[in-house]
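Handout, tutorial session.
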Amino acid sequence: MATASVSGSREKELWRRLDEVNDPELDEPITEMGFVERAVVAGDGSVEIDFRLPTYWCSPNFAFLMLDGVRKALDQLSWAPAYRVKLHDHMFANEVNRGMEAGNTFGDIFAVLAEDQDLGGLRETFRMKAFKRRQEAVLRGLRQHGLTDREILGMDLAAYDVARFEPGEAAKQKPRYRAALLERFPDRRADDPVFVTWEGQRIPPGALGTHLAELRGVRINMEFNGALCRGLKQTRYKELEVVDGEPTLVDFILDRVPARTAPTA
């Protein structure tokens, strides 16, 4: 009984850690995107992960950033397990899997695959987009609650932390924006404004509408890429979607619905 309890606790911790790993381009958890096909804790405590991206030609840089995030998540598990991460159906899957089996780090493997790409610059670009998308959701939420632009832009961390939202995008992004803000500006004082530009500049109340229009463009681009990514993955693997217990029209068009078995006499 104790063993089953330990196993269940470890499984929950494993998925909780994986939930914290985001697709860097979309700022959405890789678990929600369906990239983690399998994650199990074996009887000896070791961990096995099967990872699959939506297309065969997904950028090796994106693959690296996500797999490196998975590695860091596994390194944080409380029982420090041995682990195996396997990439499936990707143009560099063989190189990645061979490298990992040989004990090479992700950095060593992708240093060759990424050639002279600036992964640090790529990370920074994605952090900026995530910062803006999260900020926009919270700003819109505060406006919907009836706060004036001056009240919103005058908020410090204390006021921000007590703000409450109904379940939805603003509530989801509130702690995530706080984390992005403090990652971007670790020396931020408690009485500094919470809402600033990526460069750290104050946003005048009269400019909030223009600022939100810029952020909206970032969000729409990310949402479009996310929808495209999910669609490519579903089409590639013919994943069946069910609405109210029935396949959707798209599933029939894409031939994802298995033929019915004739009843036996």
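The second record follows below. Compare its token runs with those of the first.
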Amino acid sequence: MHDFLRTFFDLGEILDVLPALLTEGLRNTLLIAALAIVFGVVAGVLLAVLLLSRRRLVRLPARIYVDVFRGLPAIVTVSLVGVGLPAAGLRPFGREPLGYAVLAIALISAAYSAEIFRSGIQAVPAGQLHAARSLGMPYLTAMRVVVVPQGVRNVLPALAGQFIIDVKESALVYLLGLGFGQRELYFIAQERQAATYNSSALVAAGLCYLLLTIPLTYAVNRLDRRMREGRRFTSAPAPVASVPAKAVV
């Protein structure tokens, strides 16, 4: 029991690594996740619109993208983007691994977000699009102004759940060998664990991830509950006022 506690809950190890986790690791984890989420949302909406196109040549590239990046393990995508692109001479971020880290997580997030947005948009009654088109709106304008905003409201809980996944998958970018000042939570903890052969640093990093994901999880559950209650309220039939019977003369 003593060895177990010393390996996973060594207070000295936790206190030694905690400043680096909070000042460097947490900041970079949030930076990677936030940038990936922004890209994923924007690209996901565009991909969802393409997936819903009636033209096969428009749908096919978007479908291939979504299927590929949803089908590949995240660790493979991170390796292909962060290691493969620079090795092939494609260096949009130069030699800075942080840019490739964000790109890898963002590509995965966009694929999953696209399916989330697609399902939300399809849940919008078709009459909304037909009504907008009947007013003379082009297809893309009708989608942007009328359909997409309603679809986004339908999928807010699922989309927030994807944000939690993005935060957790940011741990995979340790494969890219981030430099000092760019290390995220897992990279710092893994370096410490390799140097001391003690897993307390990983436990400390896990606690930092929980500080991010647990509040988000409860926020998602609360949002989902409020939206479901709102749908029940709006879908309830309006009460019919009773009309008093006329007196018989």
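Points raised in discussion: The chain has ten helices and no strands.
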